[in-house]
Amino acid sequence: MMTEVLTETRTMTYREAIREAIRDAMQQDDRVFLMGEDVGRYGGCYAVSKGLLEEFGPERVRDTPLSEAAFVGAGIGAALGGMRPIVEVMTVNFSLLALDQIVNNAALYLHMSGGQFNVPLVIRMATGAGHQVGAQHSHSLEGWYAHIPGIRVVTPATVEDARWMLPTALADPDPVIIFEHSGLYNSEGELPEPGGPVDIVRSQVRRSGSDVSLITYGGSLPKALGAADELATVGVSAEVLDLRVLRPIDTEAILASVGRTHHAVIVDEGWKTAGISAEIAACIAERAVWDLDAPIRRVCSAEVPIPYSRHMEEAALPRVSAIVAAAREITG
Amino acid sequence: MLRIRRFEERCAQLYQAEKIRGFLHLYIGEEAVAVGVMEALRPDDAVVATYREHGHALARGMDPRSIMAEMYGKVEGCSRGRGGSMHLFDAATRFYGGNAIVGGGLPIAVGLALADRLEGRQRVTAVFFGEGAVAEGEFHEAMNLAALWHLPVLFCCENNLYAMGTALARSESQTRVTLKAASYEMPAWEVDGMDVLAVEQAARTAAEAVRSGGGPHFLEFRTYRFRAHSMFDPELYRSKDEVEKWKERDPIALLEERLTADGILNDEKRIAMEAEVAEEVEGAVAFAEAGTWEPVEELTRFVYSEVGG
Questions:
Q1: What is the structure's pLDDT at B309?
Q2: What 8-state DSSP symbol labels residue A209?
Q3: Are A262 and A325 part of one and the same domain?
Q4: B112: which chain A residues are within 8 Å (Cβ-Cβ)?
Q5: Is residue A38 part of a domain?
Q6: H or E segment at B5?
Q7: A80 part of contact set with chain B, CB < 8 Å
Q8: Mean pLDDT across the stretch B68-74?
Q9: Burial state string for A59-69 with b = 16 or more CB within 10 A and e = fewer than 16
Q10: What angle do CA A152, A275, B299 make, to 5 degrees?
């Protein structure tokens, strides 16, 4: 029986955590390989895979042509052929060029083949805005992917999840898409040691509270936590629920949180219309409407393409002040 | 070829009888392509096909009973009735569908070949697609990737002249399909797709080149679909004369003539073969008729894998 748990931590960035996760997976399993645009010589467009080419060579760290449909489809084929590919797509915006392969093949093969062919594929891609890179590099389309049965959609928001969701995703027999918010790559966090794989099933309360649930994921988690800090100063106790997984969504965790706080603010960098925030709101409305003391509020991106200029981009995105205002409005 | 022909003729009847529903795309007229190519493959090679794949599935050695049951939508079908005519799958023969998105199977074939390369296996992945697919971006992306990485893929283009109702010349600025392959530095040959022996010979040569590390190869099979695109097609886009002219080169009749001339086939053998095929087809129909419906309670199975189940 353990009488004492020694917990040490390491500080690292979200980027370093993903890199370590990939390296670790490749060291442990010969079937794992990385492919995507500029993952090798360039080191990854967000420098995630820097150094991996030198360590593992060009067969296992494969630079691909600019052909998202071909290399994502090749990832599906390689997974069907017994490999455990990690396919990197530069951003979710570019993944639309591979939508056919992801939606029509990866998500359907198991069901369409009557259970014969599962696709153990991991696709990683950056998502989100905040760097003034214009509308074609800034959108948050993970909600679209969450619409599709047959794939798992995960959104690591912490360094620990960035480090430890990957081995779980690789061990999963079905396709998993990992959305990495581009604003998180430089964020630092404490990594518990020794760590180990985390589930890709459940949501997690990142901060307990009793007055309002701030339900969010990915790049909006730091904003929700910031809003919770501010709300505390005005006497509002906010619980922050990090969804972590958008498909299949952890409905029970959402309902449990709302059951505790009786108020819900959903924070999502996607658009409101037909987005994941609408799904969460509907889920609460269907199963927990009597737990609510006030209407649900959503803080999402404005219904516009994300603009370039900084002040306009900021105005388009969920802000801490807007989260605080929404929470105060319904709890006040 | 005869098995495929009779099997599909029966399918057409069963469609009229409303035993088979949805889309049904018949391969009649094109049988020599699937049969010839499959002869050149080994059991551990992989096949990726299109939505017009009954012939490929049969030629690959899948059980006709499981194929017919699939078309009936019965749980005894090769895809448990989840797939239907366009989505035949079989792990035992490495038959990866049954892909109804034109061009969608090509990247998957590239990936299957990549897995073999990474694992050091001497296997070939044969992917079938129509000439309509060459207008798709996925075709070009997959061709480029296979050639760039020198992967063991055998690209089999079944050029039946019409993408549904659109003639090649109406959709392509360059109608010589092999030139597209050649632009990716890939060996590409045009083959008479109505001559099963020519198909087999070309496929055998190409498959062995692919298997022995020669990189991807491309075969264009000149063939023709005798029947409509699907059961809903009034065939306004081609003349009856054209169809009749191509029927003069019926791949089954051509082979019969040759075998008869060579003294290999005679009336007695032909009758025996017809009887054997008829029995097999009726056996498949009986199997499908006797099949059962998957319980509705199982609707949500196979969305995700059943781990440890």
A1: 45
A2: -
A3: yes
A4: 77-78, 80-81
A5: yes
A6: helix B2-16
A7: yes
A8: 98
A9: ebbbbbeebbb
A10: 45
A84 interfaces chain B, CB cutoff of 8 Å: no
pLDDT at B57: 98
Please check whether residue A28 lies inside any domain of the structure.
yes
Structural domains present in chain B: 2-298 (3.40.50.970)
Instruction: Give which of A86, A91, A56 is closest to A74, Cα–Cα.
Output: A86
Query: What's the whole-number mean pLDDT along residues A186-210?
Result: 96
| Cβ atoms within 10 Å, residue B13 | 12
Q: Extract the runs of DSSP E, i.e. beta strands, from A232-282.
A: 238-242, 245-247, 264-271
pLDDT for the residue numbered A1? 47
Q: How far is A229 from chain B (nearest CA, A)?
A: 39
Out of A16, A37, A68, A313, which one is annotated catalytic? Answer: A68
Q: Residues B5-41: pLDDT tens digits?
A: 999 999 999 999 999 999 999 999 999 999 999 999 9
Inter-residue contact A155 to A140 (CB < 8 Å)? no
| Same domain assignment for residues A139 and A28 | yes
How many domains are contained in chain A?
A: 2
In chain A, what residues touch B81 (CB-CB under 8 Å)? Answer: 114
Token pair 């079905």 in the structure block, residue:
A174
Domain containing residue A229: CATH number = 3.40.50.920
* Residue A145 falls inside a structural domain: yes
A14-32, pLDDT tens digit by residue?
A: 999 999 999 999 999 999 9
Tokens 């190869």, residue?
Answer: B217
A59 touches chain B (CB under 8 A): yes
Same domain, residue pair A269 and A182: no
Rounded mean pLDDT, B207-232: 96
Average pLDDT over all residues of chain A: 96
CB atoms B144 and A70 under 8 Å: yes
Q: Which of A193, A228, A260 is the last residue of a domain?
A: A193
A68 in active site: yes
pLDDT band at residue A5 using 50, 70 and 90 as cut-offs? low
Contact of A40 with A88, CB cutoff 8 Å: no
Q: Provide the terminal-to-terminal Cα distance of chain B, rounded to the nearest Å.
A: 40
Catalytic position from the list A137, A181, A262, A263: A137
> Quick check: B76 and B291 in contact, CB under 8 A?
yes
The verdict on a CB contact (< 8 Å) between A112 and B97 is yes
Domain edge (last residue) among A164, A193, A222: A193
Residue A313's nearest CA partner among A135, A58, A176 is A135
Whole-number Å distance between alpha carbons of A269 and A303: 11
| Alpha-carbon gap, residue B124 to B117, rounded angstroms | 10
A242 and A187, same domain (yes or no): no
Q: Do B79 and A152 touch (CB under 8 A)?
A: no
Whole domain around residue A300: which residue ranges?
204-331
